[in-house]
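Hey,

Quick one before I head out. I ran the complex with calcium ion overnight. Inputs first:
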Amino acid sequence: MKICLRLICCILPVVFLSACKKSDSAETAAKPAPSTNSAPANPAPAASAPAANADADASAKMAAADWAMKQDEIKNDPNGEWAMQATASSTYGDAQGTARFSANQATGAPNVDKYGDDGSAWAPKTPDSGIEWLDLKYPKPVYASEVRVRESCGSGAVVKVEVFDEKGEAHSVWQGNDSTKDLNYLIVKFPKTAFKADRVKVTLATNVVPGWNEIDAVQLVGTDQP
Ligand SMILES: [Ca+2]
């Protein structure tokens, strides 16, 4: 199924893009919840519209620069850490270990450069069947204040983010409508936890965004001190 999609992608980029994109209905409904926001949008490649003028080119360049700056800032955030280990509800092709699309592809720093189907991200077994989750472990327990989920295909399907205390108890830090589009972060901010967390669970409803929903990386942000 996915191989078919890739073949189609080579021939018909338009078809491929629509498979990874949020549906129109979801897009219009998407309004960032007060406690979340996305990094500046990853601008789509400039369309070959002959009407494109210098102003449009300039603002597209500015938006692209803005996106790149934000991606770099997050990647190098001294208070951010990347997962060292992950498990998931399912994986594409039952990928194990560090195979393409395995849960472990969501560990470490982001390594997907382009929005679309990519084995350097985690993908669940099926594109649209419903609830799926990714459970990530971090090297250093921190008093957490933010989780950043880098979505790389079928963005917008995250419905819940939880962090775990040292006793293994889950604390929901966000639940709502994910407004992330294209290759970008769902940014979940919350009051700093009273406990140290070293585990994050991200839950998706893959049925809300048609096509494959993939996660490249998840960053936990926090400090040593409460
Ligand atoms: Ca990755």
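The chain has one domain: 22-39+54-223.

Talk tomorrow,
K.
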